[in-house]
Amino acid sequence: MYCINCGRKIGEKHRYCAVCGADQHPDGYNTRSSGFNSFKENDKALAIISYIGVLSLVSYFITPKNNSYARFHAVQGLNLFILECILGVTRAILSGGLFWSRYLRMIVSGTASLVGVGLLVLAILGIVYASRGEMTELPVISSLKIVKD
Predict the structure, then answer these.
(1) pTM of the predicted model as reported, rounded to 2 decimal places
(2) Of these four, 25, 76, 124, 146, which has the most CB atoms within 10 Å of its CB?
């Protein structure tokens, strides 16, 4: 069984998590023995949509601060979305400002495309973690933390 608050593995007969102290049997939670089913389905849905572009804003603003699992993914997804926006604006500014040099525009466009693919991979990784019920930090995103909770 996994803790419904922090996601750590706990014994099946334990009522409280040894790590965070959360009650494992509050009303409305499924108490089956896999991490995937330990969270409310709404929490998992919020966590997953946190990595889908602008939907990260929705997830961030409707997720309660006391829900550590969904909030963790909402903050990570929002940070990823902000990086995607920064990349898009930077690409547009540099490409527009380099109208006189086709080669520099190609380099900027190619580099931005590679970074965009990297951000897409991070989003997919975040969706996988969220669907498994894990609270694993994404590489790069965890060190930048533009939005903190």
Answers:
(1) 0.67
(2) 76
